Amino acid sequence: MTNTLRCAIIEDEPLAQELLEKYVRRVSSLEHAATFDDAIVAYDQLPAMHPDIIFLDINMPEMTGIEFLRAYPTPHPAVIVTTANPNHALDGFDMGVTDYLLKPITFDRFLKAIGRAREKVNGTSQPVSAAVTSENLPVLSEKGTPSDFIFFKTDKKLEQVHFDEIVFVESLGDYIKVFLSDRFLVTLVTMKKLCETLPSDRFLRIHRSCLVQLRYIKTLEGNTVIMASGQELIIGPNFREEVKLALKKWLIS
């Protein structure tokens, strides 16, 4: 079993470089192998360094992170994507990405990603990226309705998610992204199917592409819902009256 993990950072933003290097130094079981601000240079020099983990920014000039992954010799090390755009996570699903860190990156979330990478390096788990298959549907109980949890199919495995963990859900074309308190899942299922599955007394659709859990709504301001996690979500024109009626039940006036 590997104890010390060699980490390489491919990132063109100096502040992001410094933060990742700082986090790596804070963990005694990690070793900083190299930092690159150019993916082309990294592609040329990195294989000889034999890193266990690569922190890879997606949006870089000359060669993007996705292009780097496609070209990098297989089998890949554990790759942790770093990006300010959560939609970029979809691009790496068929490349065995181990985890995705959304900027700004917190230390606790960094540690969770390292844990997943260590499992990959030691051969004890599969990547957390979602498989693109027509079978990625929520798994219901035998009676066709869940109790207080649901299963999502991700990367050829079933992952149990309790309703309390779900903050909100966004539709991404044929996929949905399920935002949990500390991470997100992406799977192939329609928003309509999910709305039919989740309990309507706990979840509220505020847009044709967005579903929120009522308990995590912190503020309603105009046509914007602000979640306890800080995300600001727009209420669609066709859903405004329904949202007002739903929240009116708990209004003290």
TrEMBL record:
Residue ranges of every copy of the Response regulatory domain listed in the record: 6-118
Domain HTH LytTR-type: 150-249
Any Pfam family matching the protein: LytTR
GO molecular function terms noted in the UniProt entry: DNA binding; phosphorelay response regulator activity
Keyword Phosphoprotein appears in the UniProt entry: yes
Database matches in SMART domains: LytTR, REC
Modified residues (4-aspartylphosphate): 57
Swiss-Prot/TrEMBL keywords: Phosphoprotein
Name of the molecule in the record: Two component transcriptional regulator, LytTR family
Upper taxonomic lineage: Bacteria, Pseudomonadati, Bacteroidota, Cytophagia, Cytophagales
